[in-house]
TrEMBL record:
Family: In the N-terminal section; belongs to the phytochrome family.
GO terms under biological process: detection of visible light; osmosensory signaling via phosphorelay pathway; regulation of DNA-templated transcription
One Gene Ontology term of the molecular function aspect: phosphorelay sensor kinase activity
UniProt KW Secreted keyword: no
Residues of the full protein shown: 1 to 510 of 736
Annotated keywords: ATP-binding, Chromophore, Kinase, Nucleotide-binding, Phosphoprotein, Photoreceptor protein, Receptor, Sensory transduction, Transferase
Catalytic activity reported: ATP + protein L-histidine = ADP + protein N-phospho-L-histidine
Domain Phytochrome chromophore attachment site: residue ranges: 141-296
Enzyme Commission numbers on file: 2.7.13.3
Transmembrane annotation, as ranges: none
Protein name, entry field: histidine kinase
Species classification: Bacteria, Pseudomonadati, Bacteroidota, Chitinophagia, Chitinophagales
Length: 510
């Protein structure tokens, strides 16, 4: 990788998948799938093959491993031949220099990548996994899924601390379950800013669901490549070296080894099982896979729960929309149909107030700003919002005229009815003042120093993780996808109640 400077503005652009290095516990061999020549090899391969890295590049595996002896040659040839490109990842056990290794195979473009790491023959995981699976299944019924998950995963990997870290709507995250050694300070309930896990890292964790950082103090091993090869894309690799920024973060936290497993729901990264050890700790590949299996079970339970609850909420709102549709067909004016019957626009979301704006008239229900304030907001919407639907739980970030109206309107959901620019429905949510416990006060540490070929400047992960309480103001509760869908369905129903009839109703209404 060419030199890259990490600073405040590009932290999420650091190309962490092509750092050109692996962690010290492993050894990597990249073989071109067509020519069977070695195109990448980590500098430390001698201890496995008895051949220097520089002497392996550009040679066929048979040629370069000739010096390693027939046995090693056959072993390597075995998995190269067997590996089928259709299968994403394969693991082989292989004996090298009298030691047992796993060869973890993945593909990167036209390169077959074999990552070798020590295998622990004594590891027997079946009973532990069965036990973990059955406890997690039982706990799901008792609504203790996440607590049980961290407990079972801790018992499998034996780390000092195991947490469930859940991503929130604004990209920040919160520790929602934790099990730890008694002497450690709890992190449960603490919030962490979005920048602690930058965007490109989250993307990688969606593709490659397990991340082991075995020891923050070891020096990474460079991966050599042939002149014609570009830096190896290690998206699918397990031994990928870690960004120096994240290593510093872990050291600031006092953590020596870290392990995380992705929880993915509906193709979105819902959270991570985040695990810390305060001394260096390598986890055998089979145990990592077992922990992932438990996490996958948790993901599937969470997926089902979310689907069930979304279905219930959506069904509730669909019912309201149906009732409003009946009102619309029955009544002569939009005002009568939408704000004067038993079921009104106010039932269609969790808002505390709503305004139906038709031409110059404003009809309100519940807790709303006064008519003058709504009128001003309406004019701002006409001028500034081109989309048919706009929602925010922090209006103050968009609109300068929020003085005196936050109590009822810190958050708004605005839908244009589409008949006239003046016609819109505005739902209001009141200010929700609450506190958030952050792990450390956000601070900018100015540093400028070189680590390898990376210059770190302007930003460093914070050094203090002491709890810091923020009082959150000017914000309402968030608008859910179901609420926004409900508002959009109402517009559709209004328009569907025949264009002609809507026009008639509007005329009568004036
Ligand atoms: C990665 N940051 C991560 C990971 C976690 C966190 C879990 C995944 C890798 C791992 O398991 O260690 C953050 N860890 C946390 C949080 C908790 C925790 C929030 O235990 C809460 C309890 N980090 C910064 C800044 C930058 C940064 C300022 O604080 C960048 C400028 C970067 N974090 C960063 C990068 C990665 C990362 C680049 C990816 C590491 C990798 O996979 O190579």
């Amino acid at each position: 990788m060419d030199s890259f400077s990490v600073d405040l503005t590009n932290c999420d652009k650091e190309p962490i998948h092509i750092l050109g290095k692996i962690q010290a516990y492993g050894c990597l061999l990249g073989i071109h799938t067509k020519t069977r020549t070695v195109t990448y090899v980590s500098k430390n391969c001698y201890k496995l093959f008895g051949v220097q890295a520089e002497d392996m590049l550009n040679k066929t595996i048979e040629e370069c491993l000739a010096a390693a002896g027939e046995y090693i040659q056959q072993e390597i040839a075995r998995f190269v031949n067997e590996f089928s490109v259709d299968r994403h990842k394969e693991t082989y056990e292989i004996k090298l220099q009298d030691k047992l290794y796993y060869a973890i195979i993945s593909q990167s473009g036209e390169t077959l990548v074999a990552e070798f790491e020590p295998a622990d023959k004594t590891v027997i995981i079946n009973d532990r996994v069965y036990d973990g699976v059955s406890k997690i299944i039982a706990s799901n019924a008792a609504d203790k899924l996440l607590d049980s998950a961290v407990k079972e995963i801790k018992s499998i990997i034996s780390y000092d601390r195991v947490m469930v870290y859940r991503f929130l709507n604004d990209g920040s995250g919160k520790v929602v379950a934790e099990v730890k050694e008694e002497h450690l300070e709890p992190f449960l309930g603490l919030h962490y800013p979005e920048s602690d896990i930058p965007k490109q890292a989250r993307e990688l964790y969606k593709i490659n669901k397990i991340r082991l950082i075995a020891d923050v103090d070891t020096e990474d091993v460079p991966v050599l490549r042939t002149e014609k090869s570009i830096t190896l894309d290690m998206t699918h690799c397990v031994q990928r070296a870690v960004s120096p920024m994240h290593i510093r973060y872990l050291k600031n936290m006092g953590v020596h080894s870290s392990f995380s497993i992705s929880i993915i729901i509906n193709d979105k990264l819902w959270g991570l099982i985040a695990c810390h050890n305060y001394t260096p700790k390598f986890i055998d590949y089979k145990i990592r896979e077992a922990a992932k299996l438990l996490s996958d079970i948790v993901s599937s339970f969470l997926f089902n729960k979310k689907r069930e609850s979304n279905n219930l909420i959506a069904a509730k709102y669909n019912d309201i929309v149906r009732k409003l549709q009946i009102n619309l067909l029955k009544e002569n004016t939009l005002v009568k149909a939408l704000v004067q019957e038993k079921t009104t626009l106010l039932n269609a979301t969790e808002a505390h107030g709503v305004a139906l704006c038709l031409e110059n008239n404003i009809h309100t229900l519940g807790s709303t700003p006064d008519t003058e304030q709504i009128d001003a907001l309406k004019s701002w919407t006409i001028e500034n919002i081109s989309k048919p639907i706009f929602s925010t739980n922090k209006l103050i970030e968009y609109y300068a005229g929020t003085d005196g109206m936050l109590q009822s309107a810190a958050g708004v959901l605005i839908v244009k009815i589409g008949l006239d620019a003046q016609d819109m429905i505005i739902w209001f949510k009141p200010e929700y003042i609450h506190t958030v416990q952050w792990a450390g006060k956000p601070e900018k540490n100015i540093v400028a120093r070189k680590e390898g070929n990376i210059t770190l400047q302007d930003i460093s992960p914070r050094t203090s993780f002491d709890a810091w309480t923020e009082v959150v103001k000017h914000t309402s509760e968030a608008w859910s996808e179901e609420e926004i869908e409900s508002a959009s369905n109402i517009v559709q129903v209004i328009l569907e109640t025949s264009h002609k009839k809507s026009k008639e109703l509007l005329e009568i209404n004036q």
